[in-house]
């Protein structure tokens, strides 16, 4: 899991005092995002004269800073990036029980009116454990809509990466009528043109060679860190696995992990079920997950392991490094992805990533489409 912001003593006091400490302690430094998130919620205890109902959804503290116009989904996503698990649970409980901010987790009508988008999807997945059955059913429909849109977008990129194309430069003297290369045949037989009779004599008809890729059996193992900071990667990994499933010659595995390992391969064809079953949070034992996946490799030289994580390892790092070195030594290709969302923002432990590169792994940041293209190149 990505490290939480580190605060010095002054920033801690500034966070505790809120706007009351702004004059003497400054604007907040590294703790400013935390202060805004807390103010969005607890600033409601002290409404200012003339504040209307909209003040419930804005920053109510004063002292020179502008109001933060956060939506409920944005606030939920923000606190999951800024605070430890125990604090997040307290904030969510206070939001619902103390302030009645239930737009996402309890208000069915609001959820029905919501426009499906990736930010709302993340908020739903982070708060699904707070939903009653009726709201949860509606949330599942919203998740399905967003996932369907993501699949439609990525599927085109996957097909473009994996589908072979007819290559005009590869021609044959034999072939079916559907493969007849008319333009190339005319061009190469022009020297046989009979000027007196005004006819072109075709001595050597040419045909396109069918170059559709036929893949030998390969295994692609997607390992996804499901700690709280990696939710975007979990979403896109589930969608990517669904798109890879069913491609000729590819056996896809999907494995989620924190301190435990969960094999989701049986649900790869249903990314909605995968996402609704993900339990975010906890530590990160990458080495344990890689060891589990290594045991499922059938033909080492025809296997690719993709580890999607921020590489902040929670167990002894040498376990992961040793596993990667052994995998590379047996011919398995190992790819470490620091991010797998649409922005591919690479926030990860660069020191550990460097050790994995030394062990033979490839490490980088790719969007789902770029991952599909990389896999297609390796599977040729």
From TrEMBL:
Residue ranges of domain VWFA in the record: 217-376
InterPro entries per UniProt: LolB, Uncharacterised_CoxE, VWF_A, vWFA_dom_sf
Matching Gene3D superfamilies: von Willebrand factor, type A domain
Pfam families named in the record: VWA_CoxE
Segments of skewed composition (Basic and acidic residues): 43-64
Disordered: annotated span: 42-68
PANTHER family: OUTER MEMBRANE LOLAB LIPOPROTEIN INSERTION APPARATUS (PTHR30634), OUTER-MEMBRANE LIPOPROTEIN LOLB (PTHR30634:SF16)
Name listed for the protein in its UniProt record: VWA domain-containing protein
Species in which this protein is naturally found: Pseudaquabacterium terrae
């Amino acid at each position: 899991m990505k490290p939480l912001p580190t605060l010095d003593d002054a920033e801690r006091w500034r966070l505790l005092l809120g706007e009351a400490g702004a004059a003497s302690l400054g604007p907040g430094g590294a703790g400013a995002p935390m202060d805004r998130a807390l103010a969005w919620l607890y600033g409601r205890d002290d409404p200012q004269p003339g504040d209307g109902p909209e003040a419930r959804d804005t920053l109510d503290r004063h002292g020179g800073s502008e109001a933060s116009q956060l939506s409920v989904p944005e606030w939920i996503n923000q606190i999951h990036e800024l605070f430890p698990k125990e604090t997040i649970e307290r904030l969510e409980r206070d939001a619902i029980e103390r302030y009645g901010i239930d737009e996402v987790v309890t208000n069915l009508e609001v959820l029905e009116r919501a426009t499906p988008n990736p930010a709302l999807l993340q908020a739903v997945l982070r708060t699904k454990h707070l939903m009653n059955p009726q709201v949860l059913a509606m949330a599942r429909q919203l998740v399905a809509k967003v996932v369907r849109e993501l699949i439609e977008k990525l599927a085109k990129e996957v097909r473009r990466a994996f589908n072979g194309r007819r290559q005009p430069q590869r021609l044959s003297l034999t072939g079916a009528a559907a493969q007849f290369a008319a333009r190339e045949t005319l061009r190469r037989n022009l020297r046989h043109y009979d000027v007196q009779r005004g006819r072109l004599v075709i001595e050597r008809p040419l045909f396109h060679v069918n170059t559709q890729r036929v893949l030998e059996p390969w295994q692609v193992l997607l390992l996804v860190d499901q700690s709280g900071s990696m939710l975007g990667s979990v979403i896109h990994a589930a969608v990517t696995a669904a798109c890879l499933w069913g491609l000729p010659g590819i056996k896809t595995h999907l494995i989620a992990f924190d301190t435990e390992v969960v094999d989701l391969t049986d649900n790869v064809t249903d990314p909605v079920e995968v996402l609704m079953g993900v339990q975010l949070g906890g530590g990160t034992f990458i080495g344990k997950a890689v060891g589990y996946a290594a045991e499922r490799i059938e033909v080492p030289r025809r296997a690719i392991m993709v580890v999607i994580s921020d590489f902040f390892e929670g167990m002894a790092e040498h376990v992961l490094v040793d596993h990667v070195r052994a995998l590379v030594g047996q011919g398995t290709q190992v790819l470490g992805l620091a991010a797998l969302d649409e922005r591919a923002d690479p926030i990860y432990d660069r020191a550990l990533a460097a050790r994995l590169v030394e062990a033979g792994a490839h490490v980088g940041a790719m969007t789902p489409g770029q991952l599909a293209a990389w896999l297609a190149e390796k599977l040729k």
